[in-house]
Amino acid sequence: MSPRLRLSLCRLLAGKSQASTSSSSCSVRRILDSALLPNSEFPYKLRPDDLHFSYLMRSNRQFVTLQCLRRYSGGSGNSEPEFDQIREVDRINLKFAEAREEIESAMESKETVYFDEEAECARDAVKEVLEMYEGLLAKLCENERKALQRSMGLKIEQLKAELQQLDE
């Protein structure tokens, strides 16, 4: 693409007439230069505020680092991720389902040579669920803890009872 046509395209995209140029059209030109000529190097030095589309469109950069994306997000880059109760409950529910499958598998293998191994896997899975559940309860305030116990308490007791049934 000829430089003149590229400049016209830049001005058109920036909403400027042929005669006017501004800093916004220059930034659009940088973006289009990188998009239209992916193998060329930029004739200018990148500043931190230039790391937008021009940075993303460079062919030698396949992935944008998480730190770069974090810098332009709403949060700070150095803070620890917030505690997400819903995610933790989902993880516990997933492990709960896995533990029930392990118990079921062990029950099916009762009176076989594989029973001891299956039962041990089931015990480990139940232990992991119980540890995750207790850890989540420890992180919550009193009201949230009671709500979680009401919503998940029966499932946890069911898991304990199924494991006890396996041991009999």
UniProtKB/TrEMBL annotation:
It comes from the Eukaryota. PANTHER family: EMBRYOGENESIS-LIKE PROTEIN (PTHR35706:SF1), F14O23.11 PROTEIN (PTHR35706). This is Uncharacterized protein LOC111487326. It comes from Cucurbita maxima. The lineage of its organism: Eukaryota, Viridiplantae, Streptophyta, Embryophyta, Tracheophyta. The gene is LOC111487326.
